[in-house]
UniProtKB/TrEMBL annotation:
This protein's name: P pilus assembly protein, pilin FimA
Ranges in a coiled coil: none
Transmembrane intervals: none
GO cellular component, one term: pilus
InterPro entries: Adhesion_dom_fimbrial_sf (IPR036937), Adhesion_dom_sf (IPR008966), Bact_Fimbrial_Adh_Pro (IPR050263)
Compartments (UniProt record): Fimbrium
Biological processes per GO annotation: cell adhesion involved in single-species biofilm formation
Keywords: Fimbrium, Signal
Domain of life where this protein originates: Bacteria
Similarity comment text for this entry: Belongs to the fimbrial protein family.
Keyword Oxidoreductase: no
Residues spanning the signal sequence: 1-24
Keyword Signal found: yes
Length: 204
């Protein structure tokens, strides 16, 4: 079975103040006068990931502009349909891996928060419309393959990396994918749209 290793997750390190009356907490510590809870992540990824030639790390996500759509052109689409005739291509490259690590594919995650609120089999999450008003409604983003752009790829589907390096070590490979709007509600509202798509590397 292939092992997935996440190399593109949002890294959050937060300090949460604990009340000075910590004696009431259920942490088993009864003699403290205060404290903090430390939250963080430890990553095991050994590869360099770029999107359209730009670093694609925990807090650095290159932007891809999706084709605009007109409500009048897609009003008769069914929920789950891809919208518009075009999609935006972008290239994901995996390189600089350790000698004993050989990737074979990438697989997109269901959403930043693991939420598929509309129940449509496409790539979407609740991180939409951040910092923009008004916010587009009734749509979300789907990942498609340029070779088969009529349907969104499914969650966890392995998208094979095309190997471009000469040897088995120092692996370099890439895959080209596309982003397109998908209808998630009966009514679409105009506005700005922002979403985040994350993916895992699948190793041999």
């Amino acid at each position: 079975m292939s092992a997935k290793r996440n190399v593109l997750k949002a890294s959050v390190i937060a300090l949460t103040l604990v009340s000075a009356f910590a004696n009431a907490a259920d942490d088993g510590i009864v003699s403290d006068d205060g404290g903090v809870t430390l939250l963080g992540h430890v990553y095991t990824g050994t590869c360099v990931v770029t999107t359209n030639g730009q670093d694609s790390k925990d807090t650095v996500r290159p932007e891809v502009t999706m084709p605009s759509i007109l409500i009048a052109d897609v009003k008769d689409a069914a929920i789950g349909d891809l919208l518009g005739d075009n999609f935006s291509k972008f290239n994901v490259e995996v390189s600089g891996c350790a000698d004993d690590v050989v990737p074979k594919a990438i697989a997109f995650n269901q959403g930043v928060f693991g939420v598929d609120s509309a129940g449509v089999d496409s790539y979407k999450n609740d991180f939409i419309g951040q910092g923009s008003t008004p916010v587009a409604t009734g749509v979300n983003a789907a990942i498609v393959l340029p070779s088969a752009p009529t349907a969104a790829v499914t969650f966890g589907q392995e998208l094979p990396l095309v190997k471009t390096s000469a040897g088995d070590t120092d692996f370099t490979g890439n895959v080209e994918v596309g982003a397109q709007f998908v209808k998630t509600a009966a009514t679409i509202g105009s506005g700005a749209f922002t979403s985040v798509a994350t993916f895992d590397i699948v190793y041999n």
